[in-house]
Amino acid sequence: MLCSVRSSCKRFVGDAEEGQSRSLRKNLVSYVLCLESQKQPLLRLKFGLEQKKVKLKVSFTIVESSMSQSRRLKQLLLIFFMLVTGPASVMAQKNLKGKDQLITITTPQGTLKLVLFDDTPQHKANFLKLAREGFYNGTTFHRIVQGFMIQGGDPNSKTGDRNNIGTGNPGYTIPAEILPKYKHVRGAVAAARMGDHMNPKKESSGSQFYIVENHRGTPMLDEAYTVFGQVVDGLDVIDKIASQPKGARDRPISDITMEVKVEEMKKKKIAKKYKYTY
Predict the structure, then answer these.
(1) Which residues pair with 106 in a beta bridge?
(2) Multiple choice CATH, 99-274, 2.40.100.10, 1.10.10.60, 1.10.10.10, 3.40.190.10
(3) What is the pLDDT of residues 177-201, one digit of tens each?
(4) Is residue 57 exposed (0-12), middle (13-18) or buried (19+ Cβ within 10 Å)?
């Protein structure tokens, strides 16, 4: 017998741009998937269309009769959401408009390509400004920790005076733009900062940044530092930098210098060339 207690109906709605609706209307008017157990609906999902926008509406009601059935439902939900969101995200990528800035960081170990996030605007604008001015050229990745991250952007690293490396900045900080959706995944670009006891507002260094090297990410840093970009090409180069010989205070024995340039490129081209999802 099915349990008489039903979970409340939940709805997930995702909007697609008007341009997507033209192609979707051709093939998608209504799609209903119904899974039944003992002639009772376990899962019902439906797509709906609106006049100017395509709204992807997914609603379901779960009726649980056993733990095994519950696990099966969770698996089915996961599979379905992959089916639902996959085509929508592909369509969104094809309809990308406008340009973005592709950052290239060249080091002795190879080249990194970065994209910075639009919804961390102050960090993005500041990094682009410094890069265009040549501020980062000749600075080094002055701190490397294999299995963790690589850190750079300190103007003091240009001088060769190792005693002052790690404390430099352009003379200002940037207000925190910490967004929970941005995690410290492999290749995440985040702003370095002073500790909470001296910096309770979590304001970022005006120039120093770090890139996550750990292949599993560093979730212990989530929502504590501003993540404002992502490496889209050259993840292996991060590994090479992190594995260089080092001495005290995680300083590389040989300088790992960087040259940074900014290139305007269509978002569609970035997405296609680097398999990056906006």
Answers:
(1) 111, 259
(2) 2.40.100.10
(3) 999 999 999 999 999 999 999 999 9
(4) middle
Q: Tell me how far apart the alpha carbons of residues 251 and 229 are, in angstroms, rounded to a whole number.
A: 24
Structure tokens given for 98: 């406008």
Question: Two tokens at 10?
Answer: 């939940």
Q: Residue 259: what residue type?
A: E
Element (H, E) at 41: strand 40-46
| Residue of 34, 33, 37 whose CA lies nearest to 66 | 37
Looking at residue 211, the DSSP 8-state letter turns out to be E
Nearest to 145 by CA among 232, 227, 239, 68: 239
The reported pTM is 0.70
pLDDT for res 91 = 55
Helix (H) / strand (E) containing 99: strand 99-107
* Strand duo 188-191 + 209-212: pairing: antiparallel
- The residue extents of the domains of the chain are 10-94, 99-274
The residues with which 190 forms a beta bridge, in sequence order, are 210, 227
| Nearest Cα to Cα of residue 187 among 227, 224, 226 | 227
Neighbours of 179 (CB within 10 A): 14
Q: Name the least confident of 18-22, 150-154, 161-165, 264-268.
A: 18-22
DSSP 8-class letter at 181:
T
Per the structure block, which two tokens stand in for 9?
A: 């109906």
What gap in Å lies between CA 125 and CA 240, rounded to an integer? 28
Higher pLDDT, 123 or 46: 123
